[in-house]
Write a structure and sequence with these properties.
Structural class: mainly alpha
Order of helices and strands: HHH
Number of strands: 0
Distance between the termini: 43 Å
Low-confidence stretches: none
Mean pLDDT: 89
Oligomer: single chain
Largest sheet: none
Strand content: under 5%
């Protein structure tokens, strides 16, 4: 992240949240958000298929 963003209060909050995620120490902080997104997309897909 550019210094302007990473040193802002928003950037510091994002960095704190990223480090608080499970598996962040192993560089896998993307896994939990990916699983949540996959669940949300699956639910939306099933609702749309059911309505058609």
């Amino acid at each position: 992240m550019p210094a302007v963003i990473s040193q802002s209060s928003f950037g510091l909050a994002v960095a704190h949240l990223r480090n608080a995620l499970p598996l962040a120490g192993q560089g896998l902080s993307w896994v939990v958000p990916m699983i949540v997104g996959l669940i949300i997309v699956t639910i939306i897909f099933k609702i749309k298929v059911k309505n058609n």
